[in-house]
Design brief:
Layout lengths: L5 H7 L4 H19 L4 E2 L1 H8 L3 H10 L10 E2 H12 L5 E6 L3 H7 L3 H4 L2 E8 L8 E2 L2 E5 L3 H8 L3 E4 L3 H14 L3 E4 L12 E4 L2 H15 L10 H8 L2 H33 L3
Parallel strand pairs: 3-4, 3-7, 4-6, 7-8, 8-9
Antiparallel strand pairs: 1-2, 5-6
Helix pairs in contact: 2-3, 2-5, 3-4, 8-9
Length: 273
């Protein structure tokens, strides 16, 4: 029997998506406390460790039916179990990774999967030069085996680390094979049917956001040098160039309208009534 991924389990219980997104943060902080043999933790301490405010943490835990004890706090071990159970981490989740390039290799070798309830069931690729090699002790198998692997291993989670051009095709095959949750590392937006959950990890976007904040912290505003603005726009993607041209046309129209209105006002001032 195919299992229901955690996203639909928690939605069925009425837990908001924003709360679900924070549960792994709480679990990471609680696991660190457990490893240090800390028995209890206050909401303020746990919130600070997870990077949220304590009121939000208490609200999140109320969805789990956990309210802590006044003057004592929360039982660390019990919360670890409670959140792990809610996230579906008390069972084994087989995962397939499709696209065994550098990133695929890195994910296959990541040691945190097993300790967090996930098992890499298979590594898949379509490149004959890659198929037959090994990563993390697992053989890289051909994409032609995808459907058989999903069925035999009861896989419901797929990880896509292919180039962007192949990601949608791989996604379609995963969905057709029965995979209902996808973690996408390819820098492209995937289209999936209702009932399929997709989480996207785009490292370049995260770096661009960090660059924005670094620029703000330094108090620097990008200054356009003569002729530089045009060269930057020429290198920009098509949609950016089109948007810039549209803004220029709109600005030009406003400027022309203002000039015409000014001319009319000047003419009316010198002409007799």
């Amino acid at each position: 029997m195919r299992r229901t991924p955690v996203g639909r389990q928690t939605r069925a219980r009425g837990i908001p998506e924003a709360t679900v997104a924070r549960l792994p943060l709480y679990l990471r902080a609680l696991t660190a406390l457990s490893e240090r043999s800390v028995p209890t933790v206050s909401s303020e301490e746990l919130a600070a460790a997870a990077g949220v405010n304590s009121a939000k943490l208490r609200k999140d835990f109320s969805y789990l039916g956990s309210y802590g004890t006044r003057g004592v706090g929360y039982d660390v071990e019990y919360l670890v179990y409670q959140i792990s159970r809610e996230l579906g981490l008390t069972q084994d989740w087989p995962v397939v990774i499709v696209g065994i390039g550098n990133l695929g290799h890195a994910l296959a070798n990541y040691g945190g999967f097993a300790s967090r309830g996930f098992r890499v069931a298979a590594l898949l690729d379509a490149d004959p030069a890659v198929v037959g090699s090994t990563a993390a002790g697992l053989p890289v198998r051909h994409m032609d085996e995808l459907e058989d692997i999903v069925e035999s291993q009861q896989v419901s989670i797929g990880v896509i680390t292919t180039p962007p051009g192949a990601a949608q095709q791989v996604c379609d095959r995963l969905v057709e094979a029965g995979v209902t949750s996808i973690l996408n590392f390819a820098p492209t937006v995937l289209t999936v049917p209702d009932g399929v959950d997709v989480r996207k990890v785009d490292l370049s976007i995260e770096l661009q956001i960090l660059a924005f904040h670094e620029q703000r912290k330094a108090g620097e505003e990008p200054e356009a040098e003569p002729g530089r603005e045009e060269s930057m726009l020429e290198r920009a993607p098509g949609p950016v160039r089109a948007a810039a041209a549209k803004l220029r046309r709109a600005a030009g129209g406003v400027k022309d309208a203002k000039a015409e209105a000014k001319g009319d006002a000047e003419r009316s001032a010198v002409m007799p009534a």
